[in-house]
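fyi for ur records
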Amino acid sequence: MKKVVLILILLVIGFLLFYLNLPVLQYGFYGIGFITLLLLFIYFFISLGITVDNSGKKFIIGSRPKKIILILIGLILVYLTVVPLFTTATIFHTASYQKMIGKVENGQKLSKHIAPISLDKIRVVDQELAYLLGEKIIGSQPALGSQIELGKFSIQKVNNELYWIAPLLHSGFFKWLNNKEGTPGYVMVSATNERDVKLVQEIDGKPLRIKFQPNAYFQSDIHRHVYFNGFASVGLADFTFEIDEKGNPFWVITTYKKEIGFSGKNTTGIVVVDAQTGAIQNYSIKNSPSWVDRIQPTEFIEEQLNDWGEYVNGYWNFSNTNKLQITEGLTLVYGQNNKSYWYTGLTSVGSDESAVGFVLVDTRTKETTFYKQSGATEFAAQSSAEGKVQEKGYKASLPIPYNINGIPTYVMTLKDDGGLVKMYAMVAINDYTIVGVGNSMRETLTLFKSVYNMAGNKINPSNVASKKSISSVIKRIQSDVKNGNSFYYFTIKDYPNIFVGSSQVSNEIPVTVVGDSVKVSFDIDNEQVIDVTSFDNLNLKLK
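which gave:
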C-alpha cells in the first residue's frame, strides 16, 4: 500500500513539474534530466523510510535504497554534467561553433543590397515610441485599459506598409478568469507615420478575441497549448505576434534543434498558431507563409555571428588576431524585393567606434552577406547626431540603415526626455562626420545632401553615375520658410517633378523668376520632390 501511495505522489509531482515547466523531451535539453533527477531523489529519500527514535536524537533508516535507483541517479548526473562537457564545450567543438551561421558570402556594395526608399517610407517610429502611442490609445478607453495590458511590439510589413503590432494581453489571473474567451484585439502603429495608430477590435465585422496568449492560463497559455498538441519533443522559441495580410492574428513560433550537444540552436521551421481558435500549422523554412517576416530569432543569429567572428582563428587566439564582434545588436531592415534582414555592424575586438564591415542576414533563410567596408558603428552615428543638437539634450533612436541616393545612410529620430520625436538625423555610414539634422525628414534630407556634396562625394565617388542634369525654363517658383531656413520650390518645362533647393546650393536660386533659363543637376531617386545638387541661372550669366 505504501508503494502505491509513493507512486501516486511521484506521478502527481511529476505531472505538475512537466505541466508547469514544459521540458523538451529530446536529447540536448536539460529540463527533462533535472525533473527526472528530482523525482528519483524524492523516491530515494521516501523509500529509505527514515524515522526518529523515542529519544528524538537519532535517525533510523528503515530500508536500504534499491541499487537501480542509485544507478539511475548516477546516469542522470552523467547526462547533465559529463556528457555536455565532451559534446558541447567550445574548446572541443570550436570549428562547429564557428560554422553555425553557415556560408558567409562577401558582398560588394551595401547600397545595392538595401533598396532605395522614398521619404514617406522611412521608419520614424521605433519600438519605444510605438509603445507610448499604443498606451495612449488604450488609455483613451478607460474600461478597456483596466482589463488588459499591451504586449510586446514587433515590426512587420502588412500589405507593403510597415507597422509595429502588439496584442492586448490579460493583466492578471482574475482578469483572465473573467474573460476566458480572450482579449479584444491588437494595436497597430505605423512605423512611418506616428499619427497612424489603430486599435483593431474586429475583422470583417466579427469581434476579435486573442484567446491563446502568454498571459493566459492552463491550456489557453500559448506555449502550453502548442506543447501538448504534438510539440513536446521540439525546441520552441521567439513567440512573435504577427498578422496576415487580412489582419487575422497569429503567433509565429520558431522550432529548433541543438546541433552541438546541448548547444548550437539552429532553426528548423515555424509553428503558426491562430490566436483566436488555436489552430496549429507546422511549416519548414522553405514553405513558410510569405507574410511571415521573421523566422530566425535574434538570439540565435547574434550568438552565431559572434561565434563566427570569435573563433575565426580557432580557440587559442589570445592575441585576438582577426577577431570580430557585432556592435549594438540586430536591427530589422528591408532590402530588395521587400526581403527582410537582420542588420548589424562588425568591429574588431577592442574597437568601439569604427566598424570593419556590415552584415545582412536573411530573417527567413539565414543567408548571410558580409560587406567588408569601414564605417561608423551605430553608437558612433548616434553620438554624431546627438552632437549636432547637444544644447537640446535630445537622444538618438537606434539607427536604421537606408540607401539614400546610393549612399548607405543611418536614419534616426532625436527624442526628448519624454520619448517624443523632436528632430530627425541622417548620418553617412562610411563617414559619420557627414550629418544632416532637421525638424522634418525633408529638411534633414536637404541638409544631409548639402553636407555630402560639400564633402565632394569623397565617400562615394561612384555615385556620380546616378546624377542627371537638365537645361530648361522655370515655370513656377515659390519660397517656403521652415524653422528659419528658406527653401525654394520650382518646376521646369518638360519635367513632371517638383524641385527644391536653398541658397546653400546656389545664391542664384533666391533671385530666379518664372521664365528664366536654368541648368539643374540632381540625384535620381524615388522622390516626388527632388533636391537639386547644383543650380545655374543662365539668364544671369548672359547679363
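The two ends are 115 Å apart (CA to CA). thats all i got for now
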